[in-house]
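R.M. (postdoc): so does anyone remember the format we settled on? I'll just put the structure tokens first.
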């Protein structure tokens, strides 16, 4: 299966790229930091894994999804797996968010992801071979996250959108999944402006652990993947508790586990 992964220069996307490449799947790794992608590609080549092609681009730039699509078809001919992983958000209340960050969250977490599905799913339908579309959500798509109003909203959009795509394409060879992680030790918290307290790090998983759980679930075509028992419980709490209770629980946990510091996004 030929695989595209957005946000493959770091964190969860990189770990997924490593896992898929080690299992023999050629990868088109996409992110802005081309030097990171090139290093990943070299590392995979040295280890005898499948080829990792690199595409350095900002997927929110005008026309970028179309360019990505054309490059993927040129590289692979047929694409079988699209992993919309890239995502961002400062950890800030609504009034604290800069307008630029507000637009970036929506452009990346919602628009680019939707446009990439729109471009690649007809292609997958046309070639007819078993295919997968995977959207990287968050446990926040179930349990409301304080100081993440636009981010949590974007992940709710992703959850509902992904469920409906899974339903619409159920009679085809395309399986559609959403992964909803809880805390993962990546660059995300520092970029977002979350200083995680040492004890709370124990509750977080590594991106490699997440990728090991996600890989077989993606291949099976599971519609919803929530890695880790703790985060399954958090998602269940978000589903069962009325909003005013759920937000108080998550706010209590967040206030206990982290400090809010300025975001460091470029
Ligand atoms: N870490 C967590 O605790 C956590 C929890 C729940 C959900 N998630 C979700 O998991 C996904 C991955 O997050 P992560 O934790 O791995 O974050 P990360 O370490 O910050 O990695 C984000 C990746 O996205 C890429 N990216 C960001 N903006 C981009 C753009 N405009 N165009 C192309 N690539 C872009 C980054 O690469 P460049 O900077 O090189 O472009 C990087 O490779 C996100 O959707 C996030 O919402 C994370």
């Amino acid at each position: 299966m030929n695989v595209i992964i957005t946000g493959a220069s770091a964190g969860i996307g990189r770990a997924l790229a490593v896992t898929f490449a080690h299992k023999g799947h050629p990868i088109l790794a996409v992110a802005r930091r081309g030097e990171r992608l090139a290093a990943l590609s070299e590392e995979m080549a040295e280890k005898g894994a499948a080829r990792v092609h690199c595409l350095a681009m900002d997927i929110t730039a005008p026309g970028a999804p179309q360019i990505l699509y054309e490059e993927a078809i040129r590289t692979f001919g047929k694409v079988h797996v699209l992993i919309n992983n890239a995502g961002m958000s400062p950890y800030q209340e609504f009034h604290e968010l800069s307008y630029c960050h507000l637009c970036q969250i929506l452009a990346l977490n919602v628009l680019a992801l939707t446009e990439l599905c729109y471009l690649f799913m007809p292609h997958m339908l046309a070639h007819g071979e078993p295919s997968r579309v995977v959207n990287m959500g968050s446990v926040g798509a179930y349990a409301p996250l304080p100081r993440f109003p636009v981010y949590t909203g974007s992940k709710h959009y992703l959850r509902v959108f992904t469920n409906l795509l899974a339903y619409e394409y159920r009679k085809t060879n395309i399986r559609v999944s959403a992964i909803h992680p809880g805390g993962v030790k990546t660059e995300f918290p520092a970029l977002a402006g979350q200083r995680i307290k040492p004890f709370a790090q124990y509750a977080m998983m590594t991106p490699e652990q997440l990728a090991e759980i996600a890989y077989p679930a993606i291949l099976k075509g599971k519609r919803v993947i929530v890695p880790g028992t703790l985060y399954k419980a958090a998602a269940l709490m978000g589903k069962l508790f009325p909003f005013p209770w759920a937000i108080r629980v998550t706010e209590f946990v967040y206030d206990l586990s982290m400090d809010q510091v300025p975001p460091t996004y470029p």
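R.M.: ...and that's the designed sequence above, right after the tokens. Also worth knowing: Residues 3-260 form a domain with the Rossmann fold fold (CATH 3.40.50.720). The first helix runs from residue 11 to 22.
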